[in-house]
Amino acid sequence: MNFEIINPGTTKELLGAVNKLQKEKFRFGAGCTDLLMELKKKPEDGLTIINLSQVKDSSFSGIKKSAKGMRLGAMFTAHKIVVNEEIKNAFNVLHESAHNLASTQIRQVATVGGNLCTASPSGDIACALVALDATCEMLSTTGKRREINIKEFFIGVRTTAIGKNEVLYGIAVPANEKKTKTIHSNFIKIGTRRSMECSVVSLAYHIQVNEEGVIIKAGVSIGASAPTVRFAEEACDFLIGKKFKAISQKEKEEFAEKVLSYASPITDIRATSWYRKEVLFNISKSIFE
Ligand SMILES: Cc1cc2nc3c(=O)[nH]c(=O)nc-3n(C[C@H](O)[C@H](O)[C@H](O)COP(=O)(O)OP(=O)(O)OC[C@H]3O[C@@H](n4cnc5c(N)ncnc54)[C@H](O)[C@@H]3O)c2cc1C
After folding, report:
1. CATH H superfamily, domain 182-286
2. Counting Cβ atoms within 10 Å, is residue 43 exposed (0-12), middle (13-18) or buried (19+)?
3. What is the pTM assigned to this prediction?
């Protein structure tokens, strides 16, 4: 591999480098766990890599909590998610997605931004953030910030809505509803083996229940089942107003059918389309047990 590396130390230098390279071929490198594998498989000539890991900016790499929710800088790592107790308590789905990602070593450097921007249909953190109805914040070379809902972020296989003059700067997760008493929040990952393996199928859910046991907000998304991670909107709507603990067998199946309607899985070396659908249907039903 032969490429030039630029190491901006501040956000200003980063935006300056992006601006300068507008007519050239360049890529961002965050933890580089995906990027280096990709460039090894498909080397590119005349490429410049903008190394994001030296940028000193707490908005780009830290976490900030407020009444509105939580904002993670794009450079926040999977490891930092795993060890954060508040994330575990309030957004367990995100904790579990990071906890199950790759290996200890990879989690130390793999970033939230990298997981989103690589736009893999089997991105685990991406799947959890879709269930959490997150917002992606981009920063352009002019210094302008642009926010879009994460559902609009993934526009195709490994394609995102980020412009060439933009970098993903942060991800905001809305706070849980004030009336929430109980949260059913988890990430189910089915792989051919537990570690160092991308999902064969995954399901993320974050379901908020009030004092009466009634579902007041639901986020459900699927991974490795369609060209992009998908939000199962009809399945979420179906749950609103129902008592979580009183969902009947028939309703569980109806819910699972609705989740499945968002899936169009492929057959590949790891699993057939038929297998992926069967598994997705069964894990969808299982979340109420
Ligand atoms: C052995 C192995 C196992 C793995 N297992 C899993 C797994 O279980 N689950 C899973 O989800 N993934 C897995 N992955 C994939 C990878 O580790 C994750 O997707 C990781 O989160 C990528 O983060 P990164 O910081 O390393 O991204 P990088 O490799 O640095 O970047 C990925 C892409 O995003 C772009 N990018 C990065 N940051 C930004 C930004 N701020 N703005 C704009 N573009 C940006 C880069 O240019 C590149 O195109 C695995 C990878 C390996 C090698």
Report:
1. CO dehydrogenase flavoprotein, C-terminal domain (3.30.390.50)
2. exposed
3. 0.97
